[in-house]
């Protein structure tokens, strides 16, 4: 199982822990990730607001390299995933003058040859939940997890084709496979407000607060995410939400790769757990019976 | 030598503004065989027709080309016009220089050139036309009505009243259809049963009307005036002649099954009538759920029946009957809202459809008219209605508007407030479409008199919290998000074609659209006809319709059937195919190509070889003149009158 790995900017910076834990988990599971050499920005959040051509040319540049590697592409960041997937769809569309423009800009003909997958799809689909279940060595039973999907992973459904857009379950299935308990809750796909984080913090605090509240109401002890922007927002704003609303949430916001890593017995230092703002140590000490040295 | 007259129509400015009609007429006069050519403002008008008539007489014309609009509009006019002058009506050819020329081109020079060509092509064809003669086909003056809902009931009453025989075939064990499930009807709030059941009784008592319930039409063959239908009357397991409808059997039946009639909110027994006013009041045994049929023991109903009407051995009966007209009244079904994950995707018991709500408020429904939560039977204090579920939604539902959901939602809101004046009712809507007599007033009444709260916006999610539904949505007029804790959510699910609509359409040879709704003959001018003559549409099988429109189309369809029955004989179009047996090698290509099953095989004696062999033969009464066989045959044995090989090749050469 080999893939061209597109980390994107977040996984090389603010979400270094996502990158580390993804690589560690894949190493243990025997999923080979080959980082796309010379990858560039996927264009998320700025390119598609300014230039349609640029918003396609950037991801296509990366996918072209993956095509030359002869591999499908895997992304971890939900935004990168979305941009790459949209680019593939556009480039495959028939009678598309836009695709020819992109060819000219990137200097190569690309028609969606490298399939784009999110790491979740790779683990749940290509690797398989049954296989994953067999690799679990740590007992996570009793840990209640609220899987939070955010917006771009499952939407728009005609682009992502990823799970049910209103009631996605992949991460919940992973939680079950790992032996922990996924909580049923209604805010799985609500917006966390990430893109307004700096401009309209008031809105973001409310959105984050509601997500924490609903998760806590259902007895969740931590949140599980698959997007570095959701993670950053929910993790870093949590103390501020508590101050603003007088609440006492203490919900670690883990990447799904970190939780898988814990279940597989990967040392927490290889999973970047120390980078989390809301520390999971207290929770894990309580819930996980045996912590490897 | 033919003497052809060519008449060029201006159609006011419709043609004349793009085509130089005078030049076309002048050029036409020079064409071979043309004895006279003229142009006129409106050829279809009385003076226009007189111009043609006079020319026929003065110039001794024997055939005519009219260059005007589409033949689908005025071909009959001009056929009549020349027939009055003693010519065979099929000696006229239309060159369509409007739809196929002036309306679709801008360049006057090129359009004029094209019009000239079209005229020349028509001339080449008409020069080889031969007189054709219509034949008479008898009419069976009986109507088959498929479907026993309000639509089929009304159609049957109208045809029966005129003194003709009608057979109504209903799939369920009682007639009544959807309307029987409703509680009240908008905008007058008549009780649906109170206005429907008298009609059900009328149908049942009318000596001209025969009703087959628990029955289905399996096949329809034939043609206008002469249809044969195969009807399967499924085994009821109850002898209808003996049954008195006393009810002892279903009172004794120990097996409880989810009730389809109550939209699965209540139960029925395995031997049952769907509702108290069922017509006929003869129960049916649901064999899939009957303990005796499944396990071989029980027979309690047999013991309970004093008249010995229970008949476990009864078998399906297949009946064949003849009809002159078929009225299709197969109705609709509801959009399945399980695709709406945001509304729970069918997982929440307290999220119901409008039709389920009808059963909840109905006094003979599963809750005896008390509005209770299906999940725990608690009274509903707060209800949220969501409109346009599966309608006006290209992504998940149908693109069209289902037309009556605005009205039935207003009715539901009003009925809820009538049951529980202290309760709260909210409606999420996109637009309110209340176009109908007293409809807008009715919606206003629900809002103003009864205090139903209307919120303009969509619902983004329904979720369950502590056993209660939470509805989150947008109020776009107030510009804010709203969250309502509701006991019950009612989805105004749209109306869609029935699951087997396509099979029904194929059986009847009628077209259907992208939504599987049956296609009317013309969207404006033939709304209850179909392209298959003798097959008429009524009710929601053609498009979503409310009760007034359904009843109107039912009466319209029966008027069409009665028009047919007013003739003893019908004239058949002579434009049918003939097969030259000398050329036929009996290869079956034409038989396979014929969409109407109009080609049979006969034994034919070849007088040249004095041998008898099998050849293909056209049953003229079934032939629609589509021409499929003429192109399928490698030997060119079939020839189509009015579109003969000779005529078509002449057209091609002239082009």
End-to-end Cα distance of chain B: 21 Å
Q: Work out the helicity level of chain B.
A: 25-40%
Evaluate the radius of gyration of chain A.
19 Å
* Mean pLDDT across residues of chain B: 96
Please count the beta strands of chain B (DSSP E, at least 2 residues each). Answer: 34
Order of strands in the sheet with most strands of chain A = 2-1-3-4
At a glance:
The complex is a heterodimer of chains A (293) and B (655). With 293 residues, chain A is of the alpha/beta class.
State the main characteristics.
heterodimer, A: alpha/beta, 8 strands, 10% strand, B: 655 residues, alpha/beta, 5-stranded parallel β-sheet, 17 helices, 25% strand
Structure description:
The complex is a heterodimer of chains A (293) and B (655). Chain A is of the alpha/beta class and 293 residues long. Chain A has helices at 8-11, 16-29, 47-50, 52-69, 78-92, 97-106, 119-135, 157-160, 170-177, 201-217, 228-236, 238-245, 256-263, 281-287, and strands spanning 2-6, 32-35, 73-75, 116-118, 144-147, 181-182, 222-225, 253-255. Chain A has a four-stranded parallel sheet, sandwiched between helices. The longest helix of chain A is centred in the first third of the chain and has 18 residues, at 52-69. Chain A is globular. The two termini of chain A are 30 Å apart.
């Amino acid at each position: 199982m080999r893939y061209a790995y597109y980390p994107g900017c977040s996984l090389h910076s603010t979400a270094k822990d996502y990158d580390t834990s993804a690589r560690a988990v894949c190493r243990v599971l025997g999923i080979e990730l080959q980082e796309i050499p010379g990858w560039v920005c996927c264009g998320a959040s700025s390119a598609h607001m300014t230039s349609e051509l640029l918003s396609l040319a950037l991801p296509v540049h990366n996918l072209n390299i993956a095509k030359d590697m002869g591999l499908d592409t895997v992304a971890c960041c939900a935004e990168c995933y979305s941009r790459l997937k949209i680019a593939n769809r556009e480039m495959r569309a028939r009678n598309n003058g836009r695709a020819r423009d992109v060819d000219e800009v990137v200097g190569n003909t690309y028609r969606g040859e490298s399939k784009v997958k999110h790491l979740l799809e790779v683990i749940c689909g290509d690797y398989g939940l049954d296989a994953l279940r067999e690799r679990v060595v740590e007992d996570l039973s009793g840990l209640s997890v609220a899987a939070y999907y955010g917006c771009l992973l499952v939407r728009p459904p005609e682009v992502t084709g990823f799970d049910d857009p209103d009631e996605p379950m992949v991460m919940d299935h992973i939680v079950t496979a790992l032996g922990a308990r996924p909580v049923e809750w209604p805010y799985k796909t609500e917006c966390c407000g990430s893109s307004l984080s700096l401009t309209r913090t008031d809105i973001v605090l409310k959105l984050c607060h509601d997500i924490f509240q609903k998760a806590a109401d259902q007895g969740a002890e931590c949140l599980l995410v698959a997007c570095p922007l959701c993670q950053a927002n929910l993790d870093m704003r949590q103390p501020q939400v508590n101050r603003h609303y007088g609440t006492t949430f203490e919900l670690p916001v883990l990447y799904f790769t970190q939780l898988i890593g814990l279940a597989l017995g990967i040392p927490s230092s290889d999973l970047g757990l120390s980078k989390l703002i809301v520390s999971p140590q207290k929770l894990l000490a309580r819930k996980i019976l045996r912590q490897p040295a | 030598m033919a003497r052809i007259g060519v008449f060029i129509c201006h159609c006011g400015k419709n043609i004349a503004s793009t085509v130089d009609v005078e030049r076309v007429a002048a050029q036409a006069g020079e064409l071979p065989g043309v004895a006279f050519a003229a142009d006129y403002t409106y050829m279809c008008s009385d003076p226009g027709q007189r111009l043609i008539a006079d020319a026929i007489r003065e110039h001794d014309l024997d055939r005519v080309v009219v260059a005007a609009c589409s033949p689908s509009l005025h071909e009959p006019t001009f056929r009549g016009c020349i027939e009055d002058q003693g010519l065979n009506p099929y000696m006229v050819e239309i060159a369509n220089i409007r739809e196929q020329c002036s309306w679709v081109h801008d360049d006057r020079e090129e359009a004029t050139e094209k019009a000239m060509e079209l005229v020349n092509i028509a001339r080449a064809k008409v020069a080889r036309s031969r007189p054709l003669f219509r034949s008479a086909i008898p009419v069976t003056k009986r109507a088959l009505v498929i479907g026993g809902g309000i639509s089929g009931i009304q159609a049957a009453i109208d045809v029966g009243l005129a003194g003709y025989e009608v057979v109504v075939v209903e799939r369920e064990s009682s007639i009544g259809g959807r309307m029987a499930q409703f509680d009240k009807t908008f905008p007058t709030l008549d009780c649906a049963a109170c206005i429907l059941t008298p009609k059900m009784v009328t149908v049942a008592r009318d000596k001209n009307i025969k009703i087959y319930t628990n029955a289905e039409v399996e096949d329809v063959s034939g043609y206008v005036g002469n249809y044969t239908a195969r009807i399967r009357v499924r085994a009821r397991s109850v002898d209808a002649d003996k049954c008195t409808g006393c009810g002892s059997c279903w009172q004794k039946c120990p097996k409880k099954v989810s009730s389809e009639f109550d939209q699965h909110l209540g139960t029925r027994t395995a031997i049952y009538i769907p509702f108290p006013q069922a017509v006929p009041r003869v129960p049916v045994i649901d064999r899939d759920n009957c303990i005796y049929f499944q396990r071989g023991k029980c027979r309690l109903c047999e013991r309970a029946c004093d008249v010995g009407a229970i008949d476990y051995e009864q078998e399906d009966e297949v009946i064949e009957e003849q009809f002159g007209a078929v009225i299709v009244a197969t109705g609709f079904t509801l959009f399945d809202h399980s695709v709406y994950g945001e509304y729970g995707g069918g997982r929440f018991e307290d999220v119901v459809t409008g039709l389920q709500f009808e059963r909840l408020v109905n006094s003979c429904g599963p809750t005896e008219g008390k509005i209770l939560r299906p999940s725990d039977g608690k009274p509903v204090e707060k209800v949220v209605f969501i409109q346009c579920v599966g309608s006006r939604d290209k992504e998940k539902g149908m693109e069209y508007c289902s037309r009556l959901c605005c009205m039935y939602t207003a009715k539901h809101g009003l009925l809820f407030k009538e049951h529980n004046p202290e309760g709260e009712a909210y409606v999420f809507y996109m637009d309110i479409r209340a176009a109908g007599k007293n409809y807008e007033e009715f919606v206003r009444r629900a809002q103003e008199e009864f205090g139903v709260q209307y919120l303009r916006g969509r619902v983004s999610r329904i979720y369950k919290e502590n056993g209660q539904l939470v509805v989150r949505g947008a109020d776009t007029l107030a510009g804010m998000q709203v969250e309502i804790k509701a006991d019950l959510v009612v989805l105004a699910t749209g109306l869609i074609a029935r699951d087997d609509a396509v099979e029904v359409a194929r059986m009847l040879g009628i077209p259907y659209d992208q939504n599987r709704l049956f296609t009317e003959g013309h969207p404006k001018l033939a709304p209850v006809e179909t392209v298959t003559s003798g097959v008429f549409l009524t009710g929601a099988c053609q498009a979503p319709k409310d009760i007034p429109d359904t009843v109107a189309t039912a009466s319209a369809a029966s008027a069409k059937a009665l028009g047919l029955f007013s003739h003893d004989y019908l004239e058949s179009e002579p434009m049918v195919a003939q097969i030259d047996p000398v050329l036929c090698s009996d290869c079956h290509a034409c038989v396979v190509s014929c969409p109407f099953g109009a080609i049979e095989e006969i034994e034919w004696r070849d007088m040249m070889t004095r041998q008898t062999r099998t050849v293909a033969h056209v049953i003229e009464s079934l032939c629609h003149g589509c021409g499929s066989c003429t192109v399928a045959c490698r030997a060119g044995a079939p020839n189509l009158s009015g579109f003969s090989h000779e005529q078509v090749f002449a057209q091609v050469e002239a082009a």
